[in-house]
Specification:
Blueprint lengths: L5 H35 L7 H37 L2 H7 L4 H22 L7 H9 L8 E8 L2 E9 L4 E11 L2 E13 L4 E13 L5 E14 L5 H9 L5 H13 L5 H11 L3 H13 L9 H27 L5 H21 L7
Antiparallel strand pairs: 1-2, 2-3, 3-4, 4-5, 5-6
Helix pairs in contact: 1-2, 1-4, 2-4, 2-5, 2-9, 2-10, 4-9, 7-8, 8-10, 8-11, 9-11, 10-11
Length: 361
Amino acid sequence: MSLISPSLHFRYISKLYIKNLLAILFGLSFAFAVIDYFQHVQKLNVSSNYQILYIFYMWQEALGLLYPLAIVFAVIMTKLSLVKNNTMGALHAFGYNKKRLFIPLLAVASVTYAIFTFLHTTEFSYAKDKAEILLENELHAYDVNDLFFKYNDTFVYIKNLDPVEKKIEDITIFKVEGYQVRYTIHAPIAIFDGNEWDARNAILKTHVYNEEGELENYTIEHKESIKTLQGYKPKIIESLYEGKALNIIDAFNTWKLLNKQNLNSDKIRAALYNKIVVPLFAIALLLILFFKLPFHARMMNIGSVIALSLGATFVIWGILFGLNQMGSNGVLRPEFTAILPIVLLWLYAIYVYSTDEKSIA
């Protein structure tokens, strides 16, 4: 029977892990942001306030990119600290086995994953796009020009899209059947109402063909308002046709839209999996390393342990990054490049957890 309160060991280990996690996460992210700043400082022809804002945006981008690595690196530091100070041996002596000692680390890592997953449903996901606008010294260059895409059984041309004002200037929609243009809709302006676009002062031109398929005439109608592009949020249009980032909610909605249009959604699914599924590799590695790293100082060569642990982490992270790029480019299905590797890694992690024979009962 343990002589230590069950909550005491949980608080002690989780506090140590949180301290290491925050130190690594903020250290890596600030270093990433500062290095990026000095690489691009000559292109930042903006005031000092905007330069600080650029660093802040890149710091946000680094947080979202590097937090899985911080989760893994922090468990390496925490485990080595516990072993080096003989705390791990003392906890074992009081009756705590590996599986009980792992619970605080799992809880903190899971909460960290949940926090960043939530952040990726917000404007947090757009930090890099905002930084690039500052880098290009185009503080008001949010407009997207000359877009052409398919919508249901029609085609759409947009002359100018302002995603900030949620306004389209000069929109044309036309339906084609075979080699015939059945009708066209042109409006000088369209406003997004939260669900669909309201094309105002539109002109509907309907083409009339004879039995031989030749154009005989056309009719013109003036419409005060025509609803169209249901579900096509400004950020979704911008991302699909300008390669901009999407948060989780917008990416999921885009996925549904593309499926409805029977269009390829590999890039969107890859982006979605990269924010939700791929970071789970960190928790799997957390489990593997915690159980595989030595539990006693006399069994440990600290230099070798650190080198192997960091090396394995970087290799796995690099492989997953490369696979994600392949999924985004359509070389392989995103399910094979994101979900399958994570499932295999988790199966091994569960195997390590369930077959550990050195846990103290």
